[in-house]
Amino acid sequence: MARALASLRRSEKQHSLADPLPFRQRFAPVAPARVRASRVALTNPVKEFFMSAALILAILTPLSASAEQAISHRLVAQTFSLTDSNLQARVWSDRVPEMLKFRKYLQSTPGGADKPLVGVVYTASFEVERKQIVVSVISNNCANAGGVPNLLFCPTRVVSLSGGKLEVLGDIPDLLVTVSEGDALQSSARKATIVTYDPQIHQITFANVDGGERTELPQKVVVR
C-alpha cells in the first residue's frame, strides 16, 4: 500500500512538472491580441482621413491663390446708339442729349447726311461677385495731351451693374488714355491703356503702355 501511494505521488509530480507550458498555452488570455487589432483598425481610418484632408487642402490652395490674382483688360473702342436705351447711353445719360444734338447738326451739313447718330467709348468690363463692373471712357470733350499722338485726357466713369440697377463707382474728369478713332481696338498692341482689377483690395487702376514702357496712372477706383 505504501509502495502504491509513493508511486502515485511520483506520477503526479512528473505530470505537474511536464505540463506547465501546455497549460499556459491552453489558458493564456487572448484579450491583448484583440486590443491590438482594434487599435490598428482605428488607426488606419484616422490616418486615411488626415491624409485625405491634407490632399484636399493641397489641391484647393493653388486654386484660391489663382482666384485672387489681378485681372487686366485693354480698353476697346465701341460705338453706341444715342437714340436707344443701351448700357453706354445709360452710363453717359447726362451727356447724350448734347452729343445727339451735335451729331444731328453734322447730318445737316453738306455731305453729312450719312453720319450715324452714335457715340464712341473706350471700354472694359469685369465680373465681380455677380456684378458687372464697366469702365467707360467717352471720346466726347476730350482734351489734347500736349500734342502727343493718340494720347488724350477724356472723361471716364466706372459703374456697377447688378439686376438692372446701375451705380456710378467713380467719375474721373480727365483720365489720360490711348485712343484711336480709326481702330476697332486701340491704336496697336504696342500702345494701349490697361485697366486692372485687384480682387485682394477691390480696386481698379489704370496704366498706359507704349512698347515695353508702362506708366501707372494715379487714378484709382474702389469697387464696393
Number of domains: 2
Q: pLDDT under 50 segments (min length 5)?
A: 15-28, 62-66, 182-187
**Count of DSSP strands:** 10
Count the DSSP helices: 5
Please provide the ordered H/E string of secondary-structure elements: HHHEEHHEEEEEEEE
Shape: globular
- Describe the largest sheet: 6 strands, antiparallel
Helix content: 25-40%
Q: Which whole number gives the mean pLDDT? A: 79
- Rg to the nearest angstrom? 41 Å
What is the strand content? Answer: 35-45%
Structural class of the helix and strand makeup? alpha+beta
Euclidean distance between termini CA atoms:
113 Å
Keywords: Plasmid
Give a verbal description of the structure.
It is a single chain. The protein is an alpha+beta fold and 224 residues long. Helices cover 36% and strands 37% of the residues. The protein contains 5 helices and 10 strands. A hairpin with a 2-residue loop joins strand 3 (118-128) and strand 4 (131-138). Strands 2, 3, 4, 5, 6 and 7 form a 6-stranded antiparallel beta sheet that branches. Strands 1-8-9-10 form a 4-stranded antiparallel beta sheet, with no helix packed on it. The longest helix is centred in the N-terminal third of the chain and has 37 residues, at 31-67. It has 2 domains: 2-67; 71-222, no CATH class.
